[in-house]
Design brief:
Blueprint (H helix, E strand, L loop, with lengths): L6 E7 L3 E8 L9 E4 L6 H18 L7 E8 L3 E2 L2 E2 L14 H9 L3 E5 H12 L7 E6 L3 E6 L47 H12 L15 H13 L3 H25 L3 E4 L9 H16 L17 E4 L6 H14 L1
Parallel strand pairs: 1-4, 4-7, 8-10, 10-11
Antiparallel strand pairs: 1-2, 2-3, 5-6, 8-9
Helix pairs in contact: 3-8, 4-5, 4-6, 5-6, 6-7
């Protein structure tokens, strides 16, 4: 009699949505990704109900029993250690101090692996690159600047307390026009995230539009700064000089900061995620600007092999995993841990 097929679920808990997927024992995605509105601000019990309902829907969609799910991977948008949430972030306060991993595992009677959303997305990028066996560092500009590092073999480097790879908060020496270091959302000055994030983009637009030479720019209208930031990419794609200069500065500083991260971790492959990863055309320029900044700061040995100059020692690629990356990452990790 053939063994009953085994499956593994990935549960990506975000502030806006919860995404869930199933993979089978061969590592193939089973069925479709399920996405629902997140209820994290209503407390972890409400989210547990969502996760359990989603798990049952995934199983029903491919006509299997929940008992065939042998492991779960879960990611959360907050710092955590060994399953316990350390900070509120965008969550309800009752998440803090709760061992989410163990509590949900007891509820569904399935072993659970848990990490943060940056690590999960990095694991997803590793999973979709089936032939890649080396390290991988994900850098993902978004509202903030997140990231994660996957070791050769496919395990995330999380640190002793689950606090590693806060890539947005490494220091860069770049200063504003008044020679001041910009203040980051974390409260420190000079963080990489203070230059490379949606929040930073809004600040830069405001500063640039306040200059007399930009008084007649089309973005100098009555729209909110959030809308201006959203429209900036379209201007850059159309060749607008102001928009290009803002994005070029951002990308250059990002590459400069990545050079120091590479000096510490030597990942071999840098994957750039975030919204620009899903665009065409303009993203090629953005990647080239990242590489310019990287070359300015990185030692030659981190760029090309001294033995074989044609071999790049640090490669750059765009993210491939899309919206399902984090859910896939923790699902594949659960498969490796619990099969």
């Amino acid at each position: 009699m053939a063994d009953t097929p085994k499956y593994y679920a990935g549960l990506d808990i975000g502030g806006s949505t919860v995404k869930t997927v199933l993979v089978d024992d061969m590592g193939e995605v089973a069925g479709e990704m399920l996405e629902v509105k997140s209820h994290v601000k209503d407390g972890f019990e409400a989210t547990f109900g969502q996760l359990e309902g989603a798990l049952d829907q995934l199983c029903t969609a491919i006509n299997i029993e929940r008992s065939q799910v042998k492991g779960l991977g879960m990611d959360v948008p907050a710092p955590s250690c060994e399953g316990t949430i350390w900070g509120k972030a965008n969550l309800h306060e009752n998440w803090v101090g709760t061992n989410i991993r163990d509590e949900f595992s007891k509820r569904v009677n399935i072993p659970v692996y848990m990490t943060n959303d940056g690590n999960a997305a990095a694991l997803g990028e590793y999973a979709v690159r089936r032939k890649h066996l080396g390290g991988l560092m994900l850098i993902a500009p978004g509202t903030g600047l997140g990231g994660g590092f996957v070791l050769p073999g496919g395990r995330a480097h999380e640190g002793q307390n689950g606090l590693s790879l806060e890539v947005g908060h490494v220091s860069v020496p770049h200063r504003e026009d008044d020679n001041e270091l910009p203040t980051c959302s974390c409260g420190l000055k000079g963080c990489l995230e203070a230059w490379v994030s949606l929040v930073a983009l809004r600040r830069r637009i405001g500063l640039e539009l306040a200059k007399p030479e930009n008084a007649d720019h089309p973005l100098n209208d009555d729209s909110a700064i959030e809308e201006k930031a959203f429209r900036l990419r379209d201007f850059a794609q159309d060749g607008d000089e102001l928009a290009i200069s803002i994005f070029r500065q951002q990308a250059h500083i990002l590459g400069y900061g990545i050079a120091d991260l590479v000096r510490v971790f030597d990942p071999g492959l840098i994957v750039i995620g975030g919204g620009l990863a899903e665009t065409e055309g303009f993203r090629d320029d953005y990647m080239n600007w990242i590489k310019e900044g990287f070359r300015e700061r990185a030692w030659p040995i981190y760029q090309n092999s001294p033995i074989d100059p044609d071999r790049e020692t640090t490669r750059f690629e765009w993210a491939r995993g899309g919206d399902s990356s984090a859910a896939l990452g923790v699902a594949f990790t659960a498969r490796e841990m619990y099969r």
